[in-house]
Design a protein that fits this description.
By secondary structure, the chain is α/β, with parallel strands linked by helices. It has 2 domains: 138 residues, NAD(P)-binding Rossmann-like Domain (Rossmann fold, 3-Layer(aba) Sandwich); 240 residues, Dihydrodipicolinate Reductase, domain 2, CATH 3.30.360. The strands form 3 sheets. The chain has a 9-stranded mixed beta sheet. A 6-stranded parallel beta sheet has the order 4-3-2-5-6-7, sandwiched between helices. It has a two-stranded antiparallel sheet with strand order 1-16. A hairpin with a 4-residue loop joins strand 10 and strand 11. The longest helix is centred in the C-terminal third of the chain and has 20 residues. It is globular and about 65 Å long. 44% of the residues are buried. InterPro entries: Gfo/Idh/MocA-like_OxRdtase_C (IPR004104), Gfo/Idh/MocA-like_OxRdtase_N (IPR000683), Gfo/Idh/MocA_Oxidoreductases (IPR051450), NAD(P)-bd_dom_sf (IPR036291), TAT_signal (IPR006311). It holds the Pfam family GFO_IDH_MocA_C. This is Gfo/Idh/MocA family oxidoreductase.
């Protein structure tokens, strides 16, 4: 049942001061005018990794929205068919490569974008930094502590800059939460409860792909949770000190009576609730199915295959250097997609949610929810009217903030992040959205520590993983 706002003038004044929109806080850096100058050359960008994330988010979207300030000078992928299709799909006229070293040696690049398999991110990040160019990498930065240290070392020696694509930070809802936290409306944060739910469409998709193998994606504690761990680090304004976690594989993989080679050829289509018809997606057929012959990668693989070795349920306890405690969980086979997050402060509490069916008047098609998150179009079907954020100070009535609802483009964060990277256009300097190697490291180190904790059944200190010493305040 929806909450009803109680009368409280002090709370009402607070809302007016913080506002419902971030639009009023937009600032332009001095460099912005130079970017728009007619005499300024476009930034030369190259992309390595032409899977769907690469060709859509870092490809077609950038080409359509930022071609006035960027120019594609190279596309690279180990699969010749995929990289050829990427050039056509993105709509660019630039050289294509299957040899990354050749691209680096022959093309003049200002900024390299890395969207390859997670476990290979470090290879391209390091080579880019060694060449002295800026690098934007998709999350997670990397998948184990040794690779993390290698990236840290490379950044220390390079004149180039590693930029983490933590678009969740820029999401309008999450920026609103950060603004309220920083205002001390509920006092200093002492603990956070954070639960994320992946549904049986989006969650299941990870187990069909290379993400189901820990030597490729490092488990979902890295590939998916790196977003969430970075949000927590950013919200709290401190760095993680120690992690203790539990996790199991109890639904997918070997936990089924039958399995097939892939969905297209499976004899169990009619009896498998998770059957997915890739032939209905023209882009996936052209990008993946048509190019299986080159590298053997199957996009509609069986999520019951026995080689899957990641967790499908995870619970993580995190202690921060400033003594904040976090309880986090990730579920991968929920009937609905969404999250709940609650901040406990010394003077009160704040909480919000998304996607909880019985809380929303508008019921959404669960099979389409993730598509909305990834949508970058100018127009989309009607969404919910607002997010509900509830704050309540101790001994006072609760306050309900109705914040305009945005899901597409990662809560509106994608465009804001790219505006900062490519146009030097900053939403709010005080929020410190931009993230680099240290932020990328701290996000993955929580996931790495959690994985080690599960495997070795012990708490893991962040300081034992790399030479970074966690800070009390950031």
């Amino acid at each position: 049942m929806a909450l009803t706002k109680k009368s409280n003038l002090s709370r009402r004044n607070f809302i007016k001061k913080t506002g419902l929109s971030l639009a009023g806080t937009m600032v332009i850096s001095p460099a912005f005018s130079q970017v728009l100058s007619a005499t300024t050359k476009k930034r030369k960008v190259a992309l390595v990794g032409t899977g769907i994330r690469g060709i859509s988010f870092y490809g077609k979207f950038l080409q359509e929205q930022y071609s006035d300030v960027i120019e594609y000078v190279g596309l690279c992928d180990i699969n010749p068919g995929r990289v050829a299709y990427a050039k056509e799909y993105i709509g660019v006229d630039c050289p294509t490569f299957t040899d990354f070293d050749k691209m680096l040696a022959t093309v003049d690049i200002d900024l390299l974008m890395v969207t390859t398999v997670d476990s290979t991110h470090h290879e391209f990040i390091i080579k880019g930094l060694e060449k002295g160019i800026d690098v934007v990498t998709e999350k997670p930065m990397t998948t184990d502590e040794k690779k993390c240290q290698m990236i840290i070392d490379a950044q220390r020696k390079s004149k180039g800059k590693l930029i983490m694509a933590f678009n969740y930070r820029y999401g309008k809802l999450f920026s609103k939460l950060k603004t309220i936290i920083d205002s001390k409306e509920i006092g200093d944060i002492i603990s956070i409860d954070f639960n994320w739910y992946l549904n049986t469409y989006h969650g299941a998709s990870y187990f069909r792909r290379w993400h189901g193998l820990r030597d490729k994606g490092g488990t979902l504690l890295l590939h998916k949770s790196a977003h969430h761990f970075d949000l927590l680090n950013w919200f709290i304004g401190s760095e993680p000190l120690e992690v203790h976690a539990y996790g199991e594989l109890e639904k997918y993989g070997k936990n089924n009576a039958f399995r097939g080679a892939n969905c297209r050829s499976c004899e169990h289509k009619k009896e498998c609730d998770f059957y997915w018809d890739i032939t209905k997606n023209e882009t996936y057929m052209k990008l993946y199915a048509a190019n299986e012959k080159h590298d053997g990668y199957i996009r509609d693989n069986c999520l019951w295959r026995e080689e899957i070795d990641i967790f499908d349920k995870m619970a993580v306890q995190i202690k921060y250097s400033n003594n904040v405690q976090v309880s986090y969980s990730l579920s991968t086979y929920s009937p609905f997609e969404g999250f709940k997050i609650a901040f406990n402060g010394k003077d009160g509490r704040m909480e919000t949610y998304e996607g909880i069916p019985w809380r929303d008047e508008l019921q959404e098609d669960q099979s389409k929810i993730h598509d909305k998150e990834m949508d970058h179009s100018s127009h989309s079907k009607a969404e919910l009217k607002y997010h509900e954020i509830v704050t309540q100070r101790n001994f006072e009535d609760y306050n309900l903030i109705k914040f305009p609802f945005v899901r597409k483009g990662h809560w509106g964060g994608d465009r804001l992040m790219f505006n900062e990277i490519f146009r030097n256009q900053i939403v709010d300097k005080k929020l410190k959205h931009a993230a680099g190697v240290r932020e990328g490291s701290m996000a993955v180190l929580v996931g790495i520590a959690a994985r080690i904790s599960i495997d070795e059944k012990r708490p893991v200190k962040i300081a034992e993983l790399t030479d970074l010493v966690p800070k009390k305040q950031i």
